[in-house]
Write a structure and sequence with these properties.
The structure holds 3 protein chains of 3 kinds.
Chain A (H helix, E strand, L loop, with lengths): L3 H13 L13 H12 L3 H18 L36 H37 L1 H15 L3 H10 L6 H28 L2 H8 L4 H37 L11 H6 L16 H22 L5
Chain B lengths: L1 H11 L10 E12 L2 E13 L4 E5 L6 H9 L7 E10 L2 E2 L5 H7 L4 E4 L3 H4 L6 H13 L3 H14 L5 H4 L9 H13 L5 E5 L7 H18 L2 E6 L2 H7 L2 E6 L2 E7 H6 L4 H8 L39 H5 L5 E4 L2 E3 L4 H7 L1
Parallel strand pairs in B: 3-8, 3-9, 6-7, 7-8
Antiparallel strand pairs in B: 1-2, 1-4, 4-5, 9-10, 10-12, 11-12
Helix pairs in contact in B: 5-6, 5-8, 6-8, 8-9
Chain C lengths: L1 H27 L5 H5 L7 H10 L6 H13 L15 H36 L4 H15 L2 H15 L16 H27 L2 H8 L4 H38 L5 H10 L3 H29 L7
Classes of the chains: A mainly alpha, B alpha/beta, C mainly alpha.
Chain lengths: 309, 345, 310
Amino acid sequence: MSDPRAGREVEVEVDVDGTPEAGQEATAEGAGLWSEAWRDLRRNPLFVLPVLVIALFTVVAFFPQWFTDLGPRSCDLARSADPPQAGHWLGFDRQGCDLYARTVFSTRASLLIALIVTVSAFVIAVILGSVAGYVGRWVDTLAARLADIVFGIPLIVGALVVLNVVADRGLLQVSGALLLFTWPPMFRLMRSTVLSVRETEYVQAARALGASNLRIIVRHVVPNALAPVIAYATVLMGVIISAEATITFLGAGLQLPALSWGVLLSTPPRTELLNTPHLLFPAVPVALTVLSFVLAGDALRDALDPKLR
Amino acid sequence: MNGDYNAATASGRSPLPPGEPVLEVRDLHVEFRTRRGTLRAVNGVSWSLEPGETLAILGESGSGKSVSAQAIMGLIDSPPGFITEGEIRFRGEDLFALSEDRRRRIRGDGVAMVFQDALTALNPVFSVGWQIAETYRVHRGTSKREAYAKAAELLDRVGIPSAHERLNSYPHEFSGGMRQRAMIAMALALDPEVLIADEPTTALDVTVQAQIMDLLTELRSELGMGLVLITHDLAVVAENADRVAVMYAGRIVEEGTVSEVFTEPAHPYTLGLMHSIPPLHRRVAALDPIPGTPPNPARIPPGCPFHPRCAFARQHCREVEPPLERVGEGRASACHYWEEVKGGE
Amino acid sequence: MGRYILRRLLQMIPVLIGTTFLIYAMNFALPGDPVAALGGDRPLPQEVQDQIRERYNLDDPLLVQYAKYMGNVVQGDFGESLSVRRGQDVTEIVADTWPVTVRLALVAFVFEIVIGLAAGVVAALRRGSFVDNLVRGSTILLVSLPIFVTALVLQVAVGLRFDWIPVAGTQQGAVSYLLPGIALASVSLAYLARLTRNSLMENLRADYVRTATAKGLPRSRVVGRHALRNSMIPVVTFLAFDLGVLLSGTIVTEGIFNLNGIGGIVFDAIRQQDGTVVVGIVTMFVLVYLVANLIVDVLYAALDPRIRYE
């Protein structure tokens, strides 16, 4: 899922001469990689625009009251599922609450779950991945097998099974269930990157100079292996927003009175939807945020890939 | 093998008139247009190849030596690569004026190419025999069986033991030297008149390098084909080539027979190259590498592109680019002060 | 080759045991009283709860429970439904409903492969063109839309305009699978198109493609035989992984379009807290997924000689 722009530059390198040039050594110093990536990224509209959208939604999540005069609980059952009208330009949901206000106040939970899951998965992946990849032997075998097992269960199905038996499903329960099934791909990515970094000459050199394992992992291996994992984590934010909406829609996620985009989308009974299509509106912020995270993650990955420089 | 060669000659190729080059490159310009500016990879390169001759194109990476070969074979992807000027003539026919189909038929048949790294240059998912036979089948329209027989014959010819059994092996099952031999066999499938070898030995062990070069030289004289040897390796040039063209910053800076150029360089860059390798029979305190680095093809210095690294440079060099001029029988140099360079040795 | 398959089979066993154990443990061993939670809003009567405890050996240690459950599973007994179709065996329910799900999955798979592959190949061959940008733009949009959203939007948009395309149930035969099939395939299709495009683009830049061109092969052969064959290696891997995604997608799609397939049963079972049905069917899903991955491993060896016999 790379950008075509990256593709063109590879060709240039290959065509001008058979031998790859400077780019190869870029990984030797992580700092150079990041600053060069940043120079590319800030001029790439496919990165800047998504980041602005994400920033906007973050502000909405923190300060929903800035975006609506109505509270999330300003409801009037008499107006249940009423269509859009003056002053309520998205209409009302089934509880007769202003849909726009509800959508604004749902932002926080949707983003928070994605953040909790992604950050936790990131921490697990980085620690487990670098230890497994660097130490190898039985630690690696054990971790890799565990990942295989969890990887055998599709995310939505796994989360459904777990949440199915949890009576009170709040932010933490939903996040935990999603986390259980999201760490393996990231762990594998980290592990394989660490494996390749471990074999590079600068790590061999550090080892030859007598640096301790911990020091090598922390100072050399992790910083250099981090780039692809960070790009993946960005995309994962989007995946989780989408997954949370899906399992909540299925009735196994957050429950009213908690609010998330998934909760808003799960309440209309589908038979009535033909008459009240405005109830689908909360899908728009879902699509927008997921799209932004996916685009930003793709751009990050391309910019951070030394092979594409 | 010889029988086939004659048959091929009889079937389509008339003998060239004597003195006529089989392949000729005239004033070739190639550039790559990228987001970070235009890279002028080849800037007005001309050379020609007589039948049966070995011409070495010598240069560092980034000098544009491979790009001219890629232009001949139609391997430059456009965009970003553009051939902005010049012509390439094979047996007098301008390749750029031909239809795409006619050009394709010349590739592999009239002019074939051997690449640097046979591991990546061979398709990993097809057997070696299949890949050699494919060339033959597509161009000659023969049956599969006949093509495989031909492939076995070719593998045997390039010195692969029990060639018949190895037809079904995959590239990764061969050693580096074997792979390069298979690659050469593939290039020879249609008895080409010109073989372009782009750094054919760079990826190989030193001992294997010599074997592959010996094989190429032997095949060249036996089959009477012209060989264009693209390399950065002075020793390979010295041992195998008849003539040499030295490239720098997308230009030919010096040209002549190998013996003359190597004994009496007429360009400071060539001279610098000679000084940067250890002499065989004499002890030296220190090698004398050329100062500085080759120019970025996006920012080639004005005037003579070599002037920032040149000990002979003066004001004139910074302002006027020296043309490639005849400096003797079959020799040329692109240096304003070539006589000084040549005399100073 | 035979040994390779055997080795992969043996490697599958621990994964299979681990996965099923995980599913089982999650459903029956989480803190709290799972049986009490089973009835949802209407708690089950005490004697039913006791029966369930007895039936599923819930008073045994977890490992023993699991072993007994797996012993039953191996004999084809996945337990019986607690609420969705109370009293009916899970295997019976599946036997009733699988044709719908298989049809739906097939329709979706055909959409995915035909459209996804074609779009990916065309985009890669015309890199940077209008078509390429269209493919890249539309696929990234599809990836960003959860299947249930696509399904609901399709239902509303199509249901309001075209009477002849059914938006629920299977009463109208083959055409009933049109919308659910598209919705189910949407995300997978988009991923496949993007993967195909990138894989083919990468292979078109490969050295061996340059060699094939230099051999004087026609462009169609260079792309069709050389580049495409190599590009299919990651694509096939993706398709196996994607089968699991499609299966979980049927839960959403069948629920929304009211199809009486396995997915629709799970959809209802989740809402009605029917644990045995959920665990039983999900275990089957995982089995199918693992077998698909095994098949792909074998196929993979056939596609890529470098990993054969290793």
